Amino acid sequence: SGVHIDSGDTHFVMHMIEGRKRFRLIRNPDRVVAYEDRNSATFAGDLFKPNFTTHPLLTLLTIHEADLEPGDILFVPGGSAHQVINLSPIISISTNYVDASNIDRAITQFEYQLDFTVADALKEQKRTKSLVTHMDPKPMLYTDFVKSLKRTYGTTKGRLK
Questions:
Q1: In whole angstroms, what is the distance from residue 56 CA to residue 37 CA?
Q2: Is 81 exposed, middle or buried (0-12, 13-18, 19+ CB in 10 A)?
Q3: pLDDT tier at 153 (50, 70, 90 boundaries)?
Q4: What is the pLDDT of residues 19-52, one digit of tens each?
Q5: Conformational region of residue 70, where left means phi above 0, alpha means psi within -120 to 50, and beta covers everything else
Q6: Is residue 144's pLDDT more than 50?
Q7: Which 3 state secondary structure label does DSSP give 137?
Q8: Which one-letter DSSP state was computed for residue 85?
Q9: Between 38 and 85, whose confidence is greater?
């Protein structure tokens, strides 16, 4: 992917089941020097092959890198710019979510993106206090998902078509 922020400044969690993936992340405060296009939630430049001649401010960034392998889980806080490459074919489970820690930012972002349906639904959840206030610490059961892949495709390795 190109450098981007997940829609609505939502939090992101990924669990790697098979394969390898590399994430490069920019801290939220560093977005001001990362050539952000607020209309598209994307950024100019490339965190994997930065061109410091055309994007000299990228030299000011602290870029964090994480390689995910089977069994790893990565949390990307809402509003964190990131870029991702697959190092091999992958199978993963991921989700974006809004909770009490990022609902106000999410409402603002969805309104800015003119997605009033989502913004209004989040406002209603906030008003009725029906938000999740924290992540459930119990591990998710991915084993059933992996077993179903093996039953359906005979393996969890390689690309699924």
A1: 16
A2: buried
A3: low
A4: 999 999 998 888 888 888 877 788 888 999 999 9
A5: beta
A6: no
A7: coil
A8: E
A9: 85
C-alpha Rg value of the chain to the nearest Å: 18
Helix (H) or strand (E) holding 91: strand 91-97
Contacts with 29 (C-beta within 8 Å, 6 or more apart), sequence order: none
The amino acid that residue 1 corresponds to is S
pLDDT at residue 90 in the model: 96
Pair 52, 61: CB distance under 8 Å: no
Tell me the pTM: 0.71
The CB density around residue 83, as the number of other CB atoms within 10 Å, is 19
Helix (H, G, I), strand (E, B) or coil at 42: strand
Specify the DSSP class assigned to residue 4: B
Sheet holding 21-26, edge to edge: 63-68, 21-26, 81-86
pLDDT over threshold 70, residue 156 = no
Residue given tokens 């209309």 in the structure block: 39
Structure tokens of 49? 């092959």
Collapsed DSSP state (helix, strand, coil) of residue 114: coil
